[in-house]
């Protein structure tokens, strides 16, 4: 694996020196150019928690992936660049307030002058590092902060359009990629997983986000949102032109 080629994949060849400013820019550019997507899950293409396999998919084939792939490889990159980073597990709180299967989301904690939550694999979420000390950070997708709990866990919370909700709960225990094997299998095969029902591809833009959900394209720019229903051919074109994804022999 070549971290220089990985940096080129998301136009970040100039960000090789470790610093907070570079970390924030690495996260933002990654989320603009490497989409969160579940297309292999829907097509029953197995996903293996092997860094070389993930590298070949994300860098060589210029695909995206879901949390284990995106944060797994980004974590490897950060350490290659000299950051003090480790994987963590999190439990997602769904929009209806119900908790998903425990510890099935993978994210990253990076230690700078203080610890930061870094996550390039949660889809429509923050595009910048969030400190664990409760300080708010605002970007085009909302205002985010991490709330410390008495039981040693932390909650990532978002406020958007006046509504506030917890996105997920985590602790700082270091994890390895193989620790997510059970969650990775669950999110590929279980009907209870949010990823096994319809195509999803989403990436950040300079001032918003663009999301393909099944055959609906949703574009958010500067707080404005438009929705378009696509034909099968239009969907194929959007995947190729907007997300850089070309699927061999599949719609």
Your description of this structure?
Helix 4 packs across helix 5. This protein has 7 helices and 13 strands. The mean pLDDT is 96. It is globular and about 50 Å long. It has a single domain, classed as Arylamine N-acetyltransferase fold (2-Layer Sandwich). The chain has 251 residues and is α+β, with helices and mostly antiparallel strands.
Short description:
The protein has 251 residues and is of the alpha+beta class. The protein contains seven helices and 13 strands.
For the largest beta-sheet, the strand count, sense and barrel status come to: 8 strands, antiparallel
Number of helices: 7
Q: Oligomerization state of this entry? A: single chain
Q: What shape does the CA trace take?
A: globular
List descriptors:
13 strands; alpha+beta; 251 residues; Arylamine N-acetyltransferase fold
Draw up the topology in text:
Blueprint: H1 3-9, H2 20-33, E1 36-37, H3 39-42, H4 51-60, H5 67-80, E2 84-92, E3 105-111, E4 115-118, E5 130-131, E6 137-139, E7 142-148, E8 154-160, E9 163-170, H6 181-189, E10 200-205, E11 208-213, E12 216-221, E13 224-229, H7 232-243
Antiparallel strand pairs: 1-10, 2-3, 2-9, 3-4, 4-5, 6-7, 7-8, 8-9, 10-11, 11-12, 12-13
Helix pairs in contact: 4-5
């Amino acid at each position: 694996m070549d971290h220089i080629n990985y940096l080129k994949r998301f136009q970040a060849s100039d960000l090789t020196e470790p610093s907070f400013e570079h970390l924030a820019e690495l996260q933002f550019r990654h989320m603009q150019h490497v989409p969160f997507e579940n297309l292999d899950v829907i097509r029953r293409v197995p996903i293996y928690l092997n860094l070389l396999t993930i590298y070949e998919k994300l860098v060589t084939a210029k695909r995206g992936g879901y949390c284990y792939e995106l944060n797994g490889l980004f974590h490897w990159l950060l350490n290659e660049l000299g950051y003090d980073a480790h994987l963590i597990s999190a439990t997602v709180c769904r929009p209806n307030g119900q908790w998903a299967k425990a510890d099935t989301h993978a994210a990253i904690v990076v230690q700078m002058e203080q610890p930061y939550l870094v996550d390039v694999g949660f889809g429509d979420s923050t595009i910048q590092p969030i400190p664990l000390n409760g300080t708010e950070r605002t970007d085009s997708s909302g205002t985010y902060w991490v709330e410390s709990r008495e039981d040693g866990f932390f909650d990532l919370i978002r406020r958007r359009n006046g509504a506030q909700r917890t996105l997920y709960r985590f602790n700082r225990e270091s994890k390895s990629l193989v620790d997510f094997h059970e969650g990775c299998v669950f999110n590929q095969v279980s009907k209870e997983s949010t990823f096994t029902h319809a195509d999803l591809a989403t990436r950040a833009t300079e001032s918003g986000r663009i999301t393909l959900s099944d055959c609906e394209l949703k574009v958010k720019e500067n707080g404005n949102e438009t929705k378009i229903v696509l034909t099968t051919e239009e969907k194929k074109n959007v995947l190729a032109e907007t997300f850089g994804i070309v699927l061999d022999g599949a719609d």
